[in-house]
Amino acid sequence: MDYSNLRRQAASMKKSLFDQGYLDEQFCQVEDLQDEASPNFAEEVVTLFFKDSAKLISNVEQALEKYPKDFNRWDAYMQQLKGSCSSIGASRMKSECMSFRDYCGQGNVEGCMRSFQKVKREHGALRQKLEAYFQLLRQAGQLVLLELPPGPGCKN
Amino acid sequence: MAAAEARGREFPVGMKVLVVDDDPTCLLVLKRMLLDCRYDVTTCPQATRALTMLRENRRGFDVIISDVHMPDMDGFRLLELVGLEMDLPVIMMSADSRTDIVMKGIKHGACDYLIKPVRMEELKNIWQHVVRKKINENKDHEHSGSLDDTDRNRPTNNDNEYASSANDGGDGSWKSQKKKREKEDDETDLENGDPSSTSKKPRVVWSVELHQQFVNAVNHLGIDKAVPKKILELMNVPGLTRENVASHLQKFRLYLKRIAQHHAGIPHPFVAPASSAKVAPLGGLEFQALAASGQIPPEALAALQDELLGRPTSSLALPGRDQSSLRLAAIKGNKPQGEREIAFGQPIYKCQNNTYGAFSQSSPAVGGLPSFAAWPNNKLDMTDSPSTLGNVGNSQNSNMLLHELQQQPDTLLSGTLHNIDVNQPSGVVMPSQSLNAFPASEGISPNQNPLIIPSQSPSFLASIPPSMKHEPLLGSPSPSTSLLGGLDMVNQASTSQPLISSHGANLPGLMNRSSKPSPGISNFQSGNIPYVVNQNAIGVSSRPPGVLKTESTDSLSRSYGYIGGNTSVDSGLLSSQSKNPQYGLLQSQNDVSGSWSPSQDFDSFGNSLGQGHPDSTSSNFQSSALGKLPDQGRGRNHGFVGKGTCIPSRFAVDEVESPSNNLSHSIGNSGDIVNPDIFGFSGQM
């Protein structure tokens, strides 16, 4: 197995995630928290995030159906999702959440609906990419992220 | 206790942090970060549970970090409660960076406000808040006394050196204003003979009981005439200093102001759909205080009343009710999720003498509105509006009341409990107490103080031994006065029962409450001795959300004595026994035990009623439990006392995770892990 090659691939994948705006600096902070004691911390956090955010998204979805035009409620649910996104550095998702909230503020139902679809898309896309990324890391035997040089976008 | 030693040697290593956030991802990341900072971390996904933990173990934490938007309780509410009851530094955090929200946090007393995502660098600095607070506390102690040299040498206000990421100077100025007010409030005479030392002073734990005494004293004096010295005298709590009272009074005033403003119609910006943005319920005392100080604008008052009553119905003849505000209140109150902006713990009504009691309008006759310690109740999710006196379902009221009551120290409750026990199978004890604290509902009729006029209230009072009915022996200034007063009455009045004058022994609301079960209580419920400690809470359903919800109209019964809940006085406590089985007030022995069953989450949680040893539970979830349990026996009960007892088991299970869960894995409802992190690291999450 060419670990160094896999390592490079992983690094490059990460770089592209940053370049495309899927992730931001917060993700680096999360990765930095990994150490010998918790070598898979980043993956754990990401896993937890997707599990929880799926619920939050479904909450928003239900609210959009059950409580038409209840912008306050929609906004509150989306606020939760946004907070969650910011914790792992899910940058594009976060932007979409913010845009949804803007539409709520404007009372723009159509805008909310569209924006919500985008949130869902970003969520799905990010999940896919991060799954691939961690998969690669595992293959590269790089579960301990310490070995992986900080990717682009990470200031350390 | 290596961690403890480490803590001592190398502050801030081992500093005990409690993180409260419903977002599991954030909680996980924060926890990890805090561990990397070498703090002791405990996480909790539920605000209500966090509050329980804090009440169980006030000294178990040095600082709290809390999210603003949480489903079960508004973060600001938690902030207020923690500040008032435990006086711990609280740091708010949110993804919401709007200035007005941040400002709100600061106004509610937050030490700092962090914007998510929180960075490691910010967390590294949080220890400053702990130190700063301690220094300021020590300063309070020395306020009126002679100043130590150490005091002078100590860096004076660090108020302006906030490591705040969100505010600049705003909080600093607030703090300095606060300091100034403290200076004005304090009298110059020395309460303590010796100059306070600058070293760590035992922190006064403002338990519900203690706070209630405080509130009663303030109520008695009148908010504008309440000076620390007089309050201290009235409270008569050994070990309490004037400075303690002064600083607490300070906070209390701020709290009142905030309540007043809030009730004046400032819309709550975050009413999360699923969450009840509960604002501190305004107790009668607060109203009185506010009214007396002229701080409540009439519309706010009306709105408050509306809120309390839940429905602006005609059943409440609240004066000066504004129709629109009534409607608004009604609408708010009707929200299924209880998304009320303001959660009033107690129904308030205006007494002739302008005191507000949580009673329906119809009973102004009572000489003076009993001052009830309307401690802001952390209403968790009070979706129901238990009928307050005016038959308005205001679960919140009862909740609040209960909440407050439950925190009463054993002394009060145990005494009453004892009494009631004797008379009634049910945990009548509460009633007397609660009645004292909270004006009886209309059912109680003119006698605001159940203790005073027992005969009038059907069930509850009936349960009180004849000897207890009577005029207050204590000669307390006002009919209702303080719980303590009521308790005394009870004790003295009753001749047949072996009253447990526990209050004498247990008075101090300070950390050292004795937890020994009073003999009387054991009569009550032989199996419940362990609960005795919790007795205080008897009748008080500490469990707000779950309990209240299911309770609906009878929710009041929960708040023993409070009566807010059930319209006809009977709300459980006073009324027919059949009504409030849960609260144990009127229950038969069996019932009582039922209500105290371990299933009550609180009980098991904090007080482990009957279940594990209280000590064990607390230690479990204490992050600081490097094996050490502060105030063990006693502390636990605070507040929970009531919970266990009054809450019918069916409620217990409702929203609260069983205590055992909490303790062992601290698994939140959402499955989050609340790890005590006893060893300072979570290892794998």
List strands and helices in order, with pairings.
The complex is a heterodimer of chains A (156) and B (685).
Chain A: H1 3-19, H2 25-32, H3 41-66, H4 71-88, H5 91-106, H6 109-139
Helix pairs in contact in A: 1-6, 3-4, 3-6, 4-5, 5-6
Chain B: H1 2-9, E1 16-20, H2 24-36, E2 40-44, H3 47-56, E3 63-67, H4 75-86, E4 90-94, H5 99-107, E5 112-115, H6 120-124, H7 127-141, H8 149-153, H9 170-185, H10 208-221, H11 228-235, H12 242-263, H13 284-292, H14 298-309, H15 323-334, E6 349-350, E7 356-357, H16 395-406, H17 410-423, H18 429-437, H19 459-463, H20 483-493, H21 502-506, H22 519-524, H23 529-535, H24 544-551, H25 555-558, H26 570-574, H27 589-595, H28 601-607, H29 614-621, H30 632-637, H31 640-646, H32 649-655, H33 659-664
Parallel strand pairs in B: 1-2, 1-3, 3-4, 4-5
Antiparallel strand pairs in B: 6-7
Helix pairs in contact in B: 3-4, 3-28, 10-11, 11-12, 12-13, 12-14, 14-15, 16-24, 16-31, 17-18, 17-20, 17-23, 18-20, 23-31, 24-32, 28-31
